[in-house]
Amino acid sequence: MGRQKPEWIHNGCIAARSLAAMAKTITLKNLPDLLHARLAAAAKRHRRSLNNEAIVCLEAGLGHGPLAVEQQLAEIRALRNSLGQHSFDPAEIDAFKREGRP
Predict the structure, then answer these.
(1) What are the C-alpha distances in Å from 40 to residues 10, 28, 69, 97, 98?
(2) Torsion angle of the four alpha carbons 24, 28, 34, 35, in this order, in degrees rounded to the nearest 10
């Protein structure tokens, strides 16, 4: 385990956090005004900071980590079974890919 660094928390308490587990920082550039306004409104509604709301949104959008291989295979098999006996012809797949393209 890494060295411990004391950290002040907003309510005045002190917590120790490993330096190896320090959170990372990103900067969002060219964030559209409308998206910023939506994020700010959601943060206010949920009583969170803009930063914490962005983290919650990213976690929700990205999920909570990669699926185990077994779980991925189970989901693929379930999808395949839901298609029934229909098999797609390679030409049909090409047509689907090209559909809507100039």
Answers:
(1) 20, 14, 37, 38, 39
(2) -40
Q: What DSSP element (H or E) covers 7?
A: strand 4-8
Residue 35 contacts residue 43 (beta carbons within 8 Å): no
Q: Are 39 and 30 in contact (CB under 8 A)?
A: no
**26 or 4: which carries more pLDDT confidence?**
26
Smallest CA-to-CA distance from 2 within 25, 23, 15, 21 is with 21
CB neighbourhood size of 97 (10 A):
9
Residue 68 tokens, joined: 């185990």
What's the pLDDT tens digit per position in 28-76? 899 999 999 999 999 999 999 999 999 999 888 887 677 788 888 898 8
